[in-house]
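JOB MANIFEST
job_type = single_chain_structure
chain_count = 1
residues = 180
[input]
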Amino acid sequence: MKIQFMSKNYTISDKLERIITEKVSKLDRYFEDSASAKVVCSRVNKDTFKLELTIKDKGLLFRSEVISDNMYQNIDLALPKVERQIVKYSKKIQDKLRKNVDLSELMFNEMLEDDFKPDESMVSKVKKFDIYPLTTTEAIMELENSDHAFYVYVNEKGKVNIIYKRSSGDYGIIDPTVII
């Protein structure tokens, strides 16, 4: 995890920076290499110090802000707060995945009970078409101009995306990831 230090009306000592780096690095187990942490140390008044810890990873944001009379104590107060946020979010995602897996297993088992036997003969049509790099706005315009429920395109990063219109009237994007 990349850690960025900033200070406001406070000078971060090498020792404090080393300790914060060591302690924040323990959160690496929750993230991939793309995660970044920002630590802001500031003096609120003569005897009061504030530490702000913000961790970002792939659109996720975890943040803690702590004020006390000791900057070393602040890191020990801020880290558990952020870790609780991360664990809570992880459990929430796991619960959603577990519910989805259970539902899909149930549906699959029902299909087996109904003697459902999928095979290639069930595919009635194969369409081949060229896909081009587009922005999301351009992809929405292409979708609106077509009579299909979705539109496949290559995004600005070179990845294949699928945009579709949701029942609420807004749009959704499917950004597939290949898992081997």
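[summary]
The radius of gyration is 24 Å.
The mean pLDDT is 83.
exit_status = 0
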